[in-house]
Known about the structure:
The chain is α/β, with parallel strands linked by helices. The chain has helices at about 10-25, 35-45, 60-75, 85-95, 105-140, 160-165, 185-200, 245-290, 295-320, 335-345, 365-385, 450-460, 490-495, 510-520, 535-545, 565-575, 590-595, 610-625, and strands spanning about 5, 25-30, 50-55, 75-80, 100, 145-150, 150-155, 205-210, 215-230, 230-240, 330, 350-355, 365, 390-400, 410-420, 460-470, 470-480, 500-505, 525-530, 550-555, 580-585, 605. The strands form 5 sheets. The chain has a 5-stranded parallel sheet with strand order 2-1-3-4-5, with helices on both faces. A 5-stranded antiparallel sheet has the order 7-6-10-9-8.
Amino acid sequence: MRRILVVEDEIIVAESIKTGLEKLGYLVFEIVLSGEEAINKAAELQPDLVLMDIKLKGEIDGVDAAEHIYAHLNIPVVYLTAYADDDTLERAKITESFGYVLKPFDSRELHGTIEMALYKHKMEQKLRESEERFRRLAELSPDTIVVHVDKKIVFVNAAGVKLLGASAPQEILGKEVTEFVHPDYREIVRQRMEKVLKEEQVENFIEQKLIRLDGRTIDVEVGSTYLTYQNKPAVQVVARDITERKQLEEERTKTAKLESIGILAGGIAHDFNNILTAVQGNISLAKMFMTPEDKAFAVLIEAEKASLRARDLTQKLLTFSKGGAPIKKTASIANLLKDAASMALRGFNIKCSFSIPEDLWPAEVDELQITRVLNNVIINAGQAMPEGGEIKVQAENVIVGPEKDFAIKQGRYVKITVEDQGCGIPEENLPKIFDPYFSTKDKGSGLGLTTAYSIVNKHSGCIEVKSKIGVGTTVQVYLPASTKDFIKKGDVEQETPVHKGRILLMDDEELIRNVAGNMLEYLGHSVEFAGNGAEALNLYRKAKEAGRPFDVVILDLTVPGGMGGQEAMQKLLEMDPQVKAIVSSGYSTHPVLSDFSKYGFSAVVFKPYKTEELGQVVNELLRNNKD
């Protein structure tokens, strides 16, 4: 039985209403005469419905009492009225009234109004419960969920608050949804919203951009669907942040492009190094047929310098190609620092001062890669001082102990410090400076420090950057010190006696075979030639069977369309486990070159090479054979 509270200040009218309601099957368990009493009794008794006279005596009339009861107790109210002034009626209209009954009324009209009010309240309650379930589920969603009615946002979940850069929903609610849409996408968003509302259908996910409250643009996937929210047609939007995914896709695209360039660059560098081997080799041979006093000797020196600069150009090309581990040897960091600074600061109005002790430890490094690191660091320092200034370059011996606060092992290191007087790096950018493609320069690729970081890492060292706006930047590079003594090339060449031997040279380029053969013959060796690995195996087998085995084999690593040095080496080892072989290549980044002994080779020589360099490697193997 439905329970009704009657609010009527005329007691005779109230009793008549009670009798009529009871005849209709309702339970009237209280009659109250004022608005204040109505509020108190409704809270105490919790009736199913309140029948409220608009005009009541006291400070609170029926309109105010009804508004309070529905807002705070969620109990439906039906107004009773015989007459009210326009102002009172206007107030009654804007409250959540569930119906009106005009005095005098008949029982059928009263019954119909009450039942409609109860039904409406029941439906609203179900809708409210449904919306509450929706709200709870939406708050649990990791995706952004926004509901907008008449283009105004009426609901946003916690994920949406975070996505849009707000600290609370109130910063977003009430705003037009298009305020958060990037201008490039506003028209398509309007069209999709109209379509959802008109056809009451789902609009599948599309990619678009949003603008957060802080002004930052983000990439999102957005889907929309029709929804009834608070009894009004609405659009529910589901969005998920794909900014990181888009960045990764862009990086993959850039990487793929770089890899494509790398394949091309590697091939060009290989062919170019073959040509340079012929040029540089013939120049070095020509120098050996004259004395330093000859006029042509000075010309050849200049030509040799030019070919060395061309070799540096091929190394720059090879930075784009995928390389293996560093090809390390004991080197003087002092020499590398001075050469790198001299090269990097050409064209800059900058003074470079050095502080390098004479007893600086040598380091086990790939000279070309570390030169690239130093170049990148010093060029960055120079670019930070467009008006000129001074760069301080320091090197020192340090021992890193257990108290270190950076990621390198304990031990001996050569510490390189490059300090500029430039504009400095903003603190928020410091964590990003080693990220691929991050650059604050308009024309920067963002790969310089990334490359430096990668190279130093591969050398088991570390690189650190400290900076202060308006003061400058300091870059520190730690490289493991070598336990070996550094020996100058000139010393080795003078002290090492020359040994003669039978050499098998395999290279697919006739140009290389000719110049390398001339070099070796000039040094007193006898040479036979092969154009690929299969020919080399055949010649080696025949010489061994004839009792005139080769002392040293030189194998070109890469032979297009034929057997290359790596495969030939494996077969040579099967034939003769004692074979002494040198691997040679214009691809200085091939993994075989960085760990040649793992593949059975005894030494490595890089193209382009001079007569002295090739002779030294061959002589070392022959000397070991004699020993």
